[in-house]
Amino acid sequence: MNPLSPSHDFLLRETRRQFLGRSGTGLGLAALSQLLGSGQAAAAPPAPTSPLQVRPHHPARAKHAIYLFQNGAPTHVDLFDYKPELLKRHGKPLPDSYIGGKRFSTMTGKADGKLMLAPVEPFRQHGQSGAWVSDFLPHTGRIADELCFVKSMHTDAVNHAPAISLMLSGAQIPGRPTLGAWLTYGLGSETDNLPAFAVMTSVSKGTSCGQIFYDFYWGSGFLPSRYQGVKFRGGNEPVLYLSNPAGLPSATRRSMLDDLGALHQLKFEAHGDPEIATRIAQYEMAFRMQTSVPELADLSKEPESVLALYGPSVREPGTFAYNCLMARRLIERGVRCVQVMHAGWDQHNSLTTELYTQCRDTDQPSAGLVIDLKQRGLLDETVVVWGGEFGRTPFIQGNLDDRKRWGRDHHPYAFTSWMAGGGVRPGISYGETDDLGMNAVHNPVHVHDFQATLLHQMGIHHERLTYRFQGRDFRLTDVHGKVIREILQDS
């Protein structure tokens, strides 16, 4: 072999950093073999299996994850965290002892002297578990015995984008792989015809407090980009650019992809860049999705009884109800992780108006999804998560005398999420806040603990699924996190 031949002269130009980075891309091609191993691609760069695909760290209780992420931070003290003391102290100043030098958003500044605000709607106990759920969420209340409420969540971030990034990627600064990317990197895919990680977004109509959906909320970070989430849009074309141009038959498209794959293969052999392998895989996936996506989006065979579970807007593409039904259809076709994001929960001055809209748009679809999964025998193998990036203050933002403008500010020190299925204990509430819902005081659960627990249910030890980048082994939970075993059925 002549090291100076044209096919190897790139080695002479390569820096030490480039060589080390290129030599470590074996795992970066994880799960590509699944997609290309069926022989449908003309050119297939060799790739090992996904790091955990052959042998997970421990037996998994869940094969799929659905994250119903509520952008904007739902108000825990108005929805799930019932505090009689907050009712008694309505309109009275927040005691100094609850503040303790805590940092709030610039809209609040100092919390000294802020007035307490009672829940807007009454709470009731539901089911055999006796879980407290607000009248804002009657459908969620009816499935309370299927849910595990984690009421002692807390986070490090006080503003939306950093807090969402922390919740989904383990870091406040964008650039880390998100939960779905880690899951597909670690576990691979169960389908050749749909992406392993799918994302859908929605926002309530007419809301004044919608959040921006940044692409890094479902990004792959420093993992090869084949692990990033694929966004499914509302409308007649859920994934853009899948259709062939007019006059181009499928056989011609197949021939073009084969030739293009061969060219990419030559480039891959010369450089070993995992992004070239990603490009080959994505072209092949797009070709297969020309058939699988129209079938996925065809709801004509869904029984009326099932559609009714999700509520009246289920037939309207782009709504939260439609996306919840699509989430079920995606996971039953083998998709590993589905992230359903709904914006509009940022009620700084709209608790008595837009909170009703948010709950109406999300309550029945969320409950309907859990019921639908259970009826189909899918809930045992699917872990469903509902929650936002932080909570909202027990004290008012605004004028107490102007009820139409009541609001609550960002609150990282306590909030509630719920989980269902996937080996999580149903019908329990875990953790507690203080008597005003201000601080997590019993069994506090940090974001990294929540992430570690979710990975655990998928068969992954959160400290062992790592990826080396810039000289360091990174993981979803950074250097933190512990599994919350008290909420798991087998612990």
Q: Which parts are unreliable, with pLDDT below 50 for 5 consecutive residues or more? A: 1-13, 16-49
What is the number of strand segments?
Answer: 17
| Amount of helix | 25-40%
What best-fitting shape do the alpha-carbon axes yield? globular
Structural class: alpha/beta
Number of helices: 14
What Rg do the Cα atoms give? Answer: 24 Å
Determine the strand fraction and express it as a percent band. 5-15%
Straight-line N-to-C gap: 57 Å
Based on the coordinates given, report the CATH architecture. Answer: 3-Layer(aba) Sandwich
User: Largest beta sheet, briefly?
Assistant: 9 strands, mixed
CATH topology: Alkaline Phosphatase, subunit A
Estimate the mean pLDDT confidence: 88
CATH class identity: Alpha Beta
User: How many structural units, i.e. domains?
Assistant: 1
Which features does this protein show?
Alkaline Phosphatase, subunit A, 491 residues, 14 helices, nine-stranded mixed beta sheet, two-stranded antiparallel sheet, globular, 15% strand, alpha/beta
Explained architecture:
With 491 residues, the chain is α/β, with parallel strands linked by helices. The protein has a single domain (6-487), classed as Alkaline Phosphatase, subunit A (3-Layer(aba) Sandwich), CATH 3.40.720. It contains 14 helices and 17 strands. The strands form five sheets. Strands 1, 4, 5, 6, 7, 8, 11, 12 and 15 form a nine-stranded mixed beta sheet that branches. α9 (250-271) packs antiparallel against α10 (274-297), α11 packs antiparallel against α13 and α12 runs parallel beside α13. The longest helix has 24 residues, at 274-297.
